[in-house]
Specification:
It comes from Marinobacter daqiaonensis. Keywords: Membrane, Transmembrane, Transmembrane helix. InterPro entries: TadE-like_dom. By secondary structure, this protein is an alpha+beta fold. The protein contains 7 helices and 7 strands. The chain has 2 domains: 155 residues, no CATH class; 53 residues, no CATH class. The strands form 3 sheets. The chain has a 3-stranded antiparallel sheet with strand order 1-6-7. Strand 4 and strand 5 form a beta hairpin. It starts with a helix and ends in a 7-residue tail after the last strand.
């Protein structure tokens, strides 16, 4: 009789412990799922930033071309239908969302070369147009770098004065920013509020994601990536 009584007590305590444990297990499971989505978004962002840098390297460092390429490469994250029509549709939606003045979903920040670096190395180069007429254009040379002067110049940049030569000035370094929407319920709010309490939450990128969260009544987390490529065409500011 006493053994039966102890068994009933143990069984009752197990039920009580389960009531406390199950919500925690559910939240942990949802958290793992959401972190998996975030990892996928970061991996996609790494590739998208690299593709954007390559686009800029062959298009004279054009920021708009890099933004467009970033949006196109991030589009697979938002495709619910694998058809080509859906891909084209999502690319157009994301490209438009990047141009929103209040809260853009993505952005390209050109870290190098800066305006001051371009001004230091720019020169007028001449070419023949289709009619055979010689024309000049102001740009920073990217051809025949192996035989050009490698002497360094002191250039003032936002991060301080740096010594740089033409060869290093032709390294295009960009940082891509993206506001990724977290879709797993409950934990998306927890992750959002946790990030909001961190010191890094005061950056302009976080401000854009926070504004986007307010406008769309959802939770967006900033995802960033950096890429460096060598210019294949002359930079034109």
């Amino acid at each position: 009789m006493k053994q039966l009584e102890n068994y009933c007590k143990q069984r009752g305590s197990f039920i009580v412990e389960s009531i406390w444990l199950w919500p925690i297990l559910v939240m942990l499971t949802l958290g793992v799922v959401q972190m998996g989505f975030l990892y996928n978004a970061k991996a996609t962002m790494n590739n998208a930033t690299f593709q954007a840098a390559r686009e800029g390297s062959i298009k004279h460092g054009d920021g708009k071309a890099m933004e467009k390429r970033l949006a196109e490469t991030m589009a697979p994250l938002y495709i619910k239908d694998a058809s080509l029509t859906e891909l084209v549709k999502q690319r157009a939606i994301l490209s438009a969302a990047m141009k929103l003045p209040a809260a853009p979903i993505g952005d390209i920040q050109i870290i190098s070369p800066t305006k001051s670096i371009y001004e230091e190395f720019k020169t007028t180069q001449y070419y023949l147009d289709r009619k055979g007429i010689e024309r000049g254009i102001v740009q920073m040379p990217s051809d025949n770098l192996n035989v050009r002067s490698s002497s360094q110049k002191l250039v003032k940049t936002p991060s301080g004065n740096v010594n740089i030569n033409l060869q290093d000035a032709n390294l295009l370094k960009i940082r891509g920013h993206w506001c990724y929407e977290m879709i797993v319920p409950f934990v998306n709010y927890i992750i959002y509020q946790t990030y909001a309490s961190l010191p890094g939450a005061k950056s302009p990128h976080w401000g854009a994601c926070r504004a986007l969260s307010f406008i769309r009544d959802s939770y967006y987390l900033p995802v960033s990536a950096t890429s460096v490529v060598r210019m294949q065409t002359p930079i034109r500011w």
